[in-house]
Amino acid sequence: MIGAFICGCTGVELSADEEAFFRDAQPWGLILFARNVDNRQQLCDLTSRFRELVGRADAPVLIDQEGGRVQRMGPPEWRKYPPGRAYADIYELDALAGLSATRLVYRLLASDLAEVGINVDCLPVLDVPQPGGHKIIGDRSYGTSPEQVALLGRAAAQGLMDGGVLPVIKHIPGHGRALCDSHLELPVVDAPLQDLEQTDFAPFAALADAPMAMTAHVVYSAIDEDAPCTLSAKAIGDVVRKQLGFDGLLMSDDLSMKALDASLTHMVGEELSNFRSSMHARGELAVKAGCDVLLHCNGDMEEMKQVADVAGILKGRAEKRALRALSFQRTPDDFDVAEAERVLDSMMAMA
After folding, report:
1. In the chain, what are the domain boundaries?
2. What pLDDT digit, counting tens, does each position of 227-258 carry?
3. CA atoms within 13 A on the CB side of 273
4. Which of 34, 280, 293, 350 has the CB geometry, 3.0–4.6 Å to 251, for a possible disulfide?
5. Which CATH superfamily is domain 3-350 in?
6. pLDDT tens digits, residue range 79-107?
7. 19, exposed or middle or buried, with CB in 10 Å at 0-12, 13-18, 19+?
8. What are phi and psi of 251, to 5 degrees?
9. Which of 224, 253, 254, 292 is catalytic?
10. Which of 111, 75, 243, 254 is nearest to 170 (CA)?
11. Residue 253 among the catalytic residues
């Protein structure tokens, strides 16, 4: 029986308590951060040990390895990669060259991940930055037009998949208009629905065939003025599933982010006292809203136990989506490593 959640761990190797928890709670996946990264052998040992404990050779091990500001594995042990904006710069000069460079460099990045047992990368970022939007997205985006973001996002996803790594499109249905960082505050977007459909939502609709997606902790007042997408049945059911047509595995963004502290006060008719804890409230509301899998990142054991409890067992449609997502994984193809490194070096020189 597999738990419908993904969790983190605290260090470069698993503690005895973490090993016992993973063995008993059986999380669907593990997500890694810089605190969990030292060197190649250590990462291989960590990912292997996690899979040994849960008894699944294909158990997802995730990371946010975008490049630029968001790169958990970095020099001197691993290559430095550019942010999404660097691919956009090439594309805007020569569209074909930009698409080719994107797919090739992400294929190279996938080889770094696959080598150490990481089989899911939380990218591409399909958010379309808008004037006045918070810099949390900024140069992580592949451009300022939804068409360009979708094209380069697909090239990035394809590069990962060519290398045996599954992509996660984020942050569905769009974080580009947010005026604050959802790690710290709750963003509220008041744009008309038509504007959202034409810009913010469009790249996600274009990549609705992706195996996995991660929600945005953002309130879209035109859809649901009381709850962010992660906790909103209207946003997930009416927009993500029906309007955008995404039927892959939907994971929440990190439940420990501060946006959800504030969001609980927006939930009309929901009193925190009805729940055993704030983390139970977040998890239960996310499950009710339609998230298939809950994501919890900070490694806090007590919170992880609460998330495991409220997430329950992966079953029904969520289980089918999880199995289908993993079916997209394939054996890495051959590619020209030297050419990929040349393109990467050229991009880094310009960054």
Report:
1. 3-350
2. 999 999 999 999 999 999 999 999 999 999 88
3. 1
4. 293
5. Glycoside hydrolase, family 3, N-terminal domain (3.20.20.300)
6. 999 999 999 999 999 999 999 999 999 99
7. middle
8. -105, 150
9. 253
10. 254
11. yes
